[in-house]
Amino acid sequence: MIDLIIDGAQVQVPAGTSILEAVLRMGREIPHFCYHPKLAVVGSCRMCQVEVQGAPKLVISCATPVAEGMEVLTASERATKARKAVLEFLLLNHPLDCPICDKGGECPLQDYTFKYGPGESRFVEEKVHRIKHQPIGPFVVFDAERCILCSRCVRFCNDVVGTSELGVFSRGDRSVIGLFPGQSLDNKYSGNVIDLCPVGALTSRDYRFKSRPWDLVTQVPSVCGLCSAGCNIVVDVRHKEQGQQLLRIRPRINDDVNGYWICDDR
Asked: Which end of the chain, N or C, is less packed with Cβ atoms under 10 Å?
């Protein structure tokens, strides 16, 4: 076990734990986009920067393991300023279409912008325009303008499913997620990229524009009955005048059965 100090609080965590994981264990928040507990760490979004006493510059907490006696400041002036700058860069070319985006109301980018981001934009140049509403598989629609290049979908297809349909193409502000030539996102677990996407870049062809998140007033824990695996799911229900309507099924975390994922048979 490793003893360290996070924002003045003494914390003990297992060796090999990252700073971000240690903070999440405390029940506290460090904003992040690219990190996911079941995907390889790439540290690409830079949102989770924190200050470590004695370090010459800020470190990304998702890729920095804890060390004995380490003292971490998650909300110092330097970390707060860096976080605000990262959000400003992410929003430079991001469309201002929250009212019509399927992710609106449950979007980390939206939440972090209100909580940590700048109050207004200084950007006056024309935004980079990319392809919108592109079907990339039987269940998934891609909106490249909304993508923040967290690469969760790419790592899921590479490391979890092993089919590698997606990749990051081009460089700089022209970088974009795309399919490899001749490929389609049609693996058995393709729908999970919708749940993984932290913004509205990957949306469900079946669920698009069917409901707003706040209309789904009931979330029912359940078990998928389509096979004997017994995958854990959450059923999102909307109440209408004619009765309850099941609109969305999402995976429910159970490391002993299905982990974070469910198949497309849902």
From this structure: N
Verify that 133 and 156 share a domain, yes or no: yes
* Residues contacting residue 195 through CB under 8 Å, at least 6 positions apart: 250, 251
- Residue 245 vs residues 197, 210, 239: alpha-carbon distances, Å: 25, 11, 6
How far, in Å, CA of 198 to CA of 110, rounded?
Answer: 10
Kindly state the percentage of the chain with pLDDT values over 70.
99
Q: With contact defined as beta carbons under 8 Å apart, do 262 and 222 qualify?
A: no
Burial of 72 (0-12, 13-18, 19+ CB in 10 A): buried
What is the residue range of 57's domain? 2-87
What is the Cα–Cα distance from 18 to 66, expressed in whole angstroms?
A: 6
pLDDT for position 180: 95
- pLDDT tens profile 38-49: 999 999 999 999
Continuous segment of H or E residues that includes residue 223:
strand 218-223
User: Do 264 and 191 touch, CB atoms closer than 8 A?
Assistant: yes
Domain count, the chain: 3
- Which pLDDT band, with edges at 50, 70 and 90, does 266 fall under? low
